[in-house]
TrEMBL record:
Annotated region (Disordered), positions in chain: 130-150
Lineage: Bacteria, Bacillati, Actinomycetota, Actinomycetes, Kitasatosporales
UniProt-recorded name of the protein: Uncharacterized protein
Length: 150
């Protein structure tokens, strides 16, 4: 499959006895975690966008008062400013609950599976895909990054 000079580094080589199906399963598990990472990023976007909107309400309240609409300013202030986004929760609490209840347990499980089933070697599925798709000897298809200069 590769020689020591032109193949993946040791940490991206399949350990002895690890089956194709195990590599595929760990790849699927990692892909699912990566998707969860993206979802978590969107959750942080939701948190920041909602917080920014709430802070902009301060300006809206001030401008409504300046425009002579104190009743609308009072309504916005009382009904929307600082309101929970779901019962009992501001967005930071949703982020915390997601992290504690779903994200961190998923992340820990994935790490444990890779440690136990593949000696902690990450991205075996991708490394093997790269190896099968690259053109050996081509300067833009190298197996590894260049070694740092001394």
């Amino acid at each position: 499959m590769h020689d020591d000079e032109d193949g993946p580094d040791r940490r991206h080589r399949r350990p002895e006895g690890v089956t194709d199906r195990t590599v595929e399963a760990l790849g699927a598990l990692s892909k699912a975690l990566e998707t969860t990472e993206r979802a978590r990023g969107h959750l942080y976007s939701f948190h920041q966008l909602t917080g920014g909107a709430d802070l902009e309400l301060d300006r809206a309240v001030r401008l409504l008062r300046e425009a002579g609409h104190p009743e609308w300013a009072d309504e916005v202030e009382a009904e929307i400013l600082g309101r929970n986004v779901i019962p009992g929760h501001w967005t930071f609490q949703i982020v915390e609950a997601y992290n504690d209840t779903y994200y961190r347990p998923f992340q820990q499980l994935e790490r444990s599976a890779v440690s136990e089933l593949a000696e902690g070697r990450d991205h075996l599925y991708e490394a093997e895909m790269k190896e099968s798709r690259r053109t050996a000897g081509h300067p833009h298809h190298t197996a590894r990054p260049p070694a740092p200069e001394a």
